[in-house]
Each structure stands twice: as C-alpha cells, then as structure tokens.
Amino acid sequence: MSPHSLRTWGWIHKWSSLICTLFMLLLCLTGLPLVFSHEIDELAGEHFAAAPLAADARPAGADRVVAAALAAHPGLVPLYLFAEEDDPGLWYAKLDRDVASDERNAVLVAVDGHTGEILGQPDFGSGVMALMYRLHVDLYAGLAGKLFLGGMGCLLLVSLVSGAVLYAPFMRKLEFGCVRRQRGPRIRWLDLHNLIGIATLVWLLVVGATGVVNTLGDLILKAWQQEQMQQLAGGRGSTLLAGDAGHDGSVEQAIARARQAAPGMQVDMVAWPGTLLSTPQHYAVILRGETPLTAKLRQALLVDPASGEVLQAAARPWYVTLFQLSQPLHFGDYGGLPLKILWAALDLLAIVVIGSGLYLWLARGRRGARP
C-alpha cells in the first residue's frame, strides 16, 4: 500500500472514530446492563411470573385472561394481548376506553394465564433499566434520536473497516499479538488497542451493523404494515384457512385458527379489530417460531371474528426478516445466559478499545505540543 493510501485510510479511521467515540462509549456502557435486563428485573422483583400449572389442570385460556383484565378495569376495552416469551403462562393485556384511541392513556395488566388471576400493572417506562434502554435506543429524542445513533453506527462501521485496512501494514514488522511493554505507555496502549480491536472486529461489525438496522425498525415495520393493509384493501390477500360456521368470534378461537393455519408456531401478540395494528374487520394474530432462532421471526395473520377465515397479505419480505433477526442478535439474546456472558465480556473489551483510542488521540496531541 502506498504512503498516500496509508495517509488517506489513517485520516478516515481517525475522524470516523473521533466523531462517534463518545456516543459509542455511551452505547457500550448502557448496553452492558441491557444484556442482562431480564435477570436484573428478576433480582429487583420487577418481573411477573405465572404460577406453576398442575399436572391435571388446564390453562385459563386467552378469553378468561381478557375477562379478568376487564373485570379489574371496568369501562375499558381490550386493544392487545401479549404473550411473554420467557414465561408461556404469563400474559399482558393492554386496555383503553376505545379501540381507535392513540393509546397514550392505555393500561397494561399482567395476568396469570394458568389461574386467570391479576398479577399487577407493570410499568416498563420507569426505573434504571428504562433509563438505560431509552439512552441506548434513542437518547430520549424519539425517531430523530434513533436515526442520529444510526448515523453514528455507520461511522463506527467505517472506522472498523479502515482500522482493519491499516492493521496489516502496521503489523508488518511485528509479531501478531505483540505488545511492546518495554516502550512507553502510549506505545503499549497503541499495541493493546490494535490487538483487542482486531480480535473483536467481527463481533463489533455484527453488533454495529445490527444496531444500525435496529434504528430503522420503526420505519421498516410501518412500511410493512402499510403495504400489508393496502394489499388486503385491494383484495390481494391470500386465504390460508377458509371460514368455519362453528367459529364463535372469541379471541381464543382466533388464536386457534391462526395456529391451525401456521402449524409449528405460537402466539406472540393479538390485536383487536379497529386497533392501530389491525383492520376494522379482523383480529391480527402475530405468531413466532418455537425454536431459539425462529422465535425471533414473526408472521402476521388476520382472522375474521365472524367466520374464522384466516388471511395473509404477503410473505414476510427480506428486510423485515433482517430486522427481526438483528434485534436479538444485537443483545446476544439467542443462546441463554452463556451467550449473554460472552456478549458482556466482548462489550467490556469494546469499551477498552474505544477508551484506548481516545487516550491515544489525546496523548498524541500532548506529545505534539512538547518542544
């Protein structure tokens, strides 16, 4: 590589890194506890859990869950029903005064799906973990904050690629992994910065790329939903399951019909007719896979409450699949606690890389100021 090319790549690496450094450091610091958010909520007593189901007992069912939530909050109507992925017996019912509301004053109720008992009202928007999540996701700036962090993530990817390009010429006269301890602290930190950076390069690329995709999540899902609704409105939806005269219009029957049309999947969420995520004539049943990988891939079906007919607008496009896979991969949420521990260790190493890069730039400035 020519000296001119080296200087160009060095300039790209320096400024792409410096511009995003503070924000990447913030994301690494806030992302560390978010990796263990489920475990932290359990330790803090903020995690609801369903009672064990007796061997000869039957679960309460979705209809009884909704009835219990409505009985605890008279005058409200159901909007959504969410299934807890980590606890199959736990449900969250979202209620409001009207299905066409903006959901700002909606109430979320945790219900035991085994006994039908009310467990409480979770408040996911308060506490330390909620603060960490908002800082990590959008800096409390909504969509603008997400897009800004997405831009910082793109700069991170540029700095990683340019750093990898510079690594080979830099190490041409040194052994791989060499840390020149006999030299001054700046040289030692330079060698450690390069070593840890190249060792965690693939992980940093994966986390950085999935983070950028996640910042576009709202736009991706809204575009997909609008496309689906337009296809259904134009009569271009496909029927997966024909109507059934024995359908009683209940949410439990809607879930059963959706699972019958898509075997091997389980319910993730149900949206009532007229809500933001459905049509005025259908339940929207969101299903997810049953394996650790496919559990992150969701499929939306529409169920007619009068006939039980199951419709699908279109197959999930590739960009939605990419987004759905990137969310859990970003936080290491595929392989249970061992993978989370690995993600946390790599996150700590990333903090060292970012901190050492900032130190090297500041130390270089002080060195240049000396006579």
Automatic annotation (TrEMBL):
Keywords: Membrane, Transmembrane, Transmembrane helix. The chain crosses the membrane at residues 147-171, 192-213, 341-362. PANTHER family: BLL7967 PROTEIN, IRON-REGULATED INNER MEMBRANE PROTEIN-RELATED. This is Putative iron-regulated membrane protein.
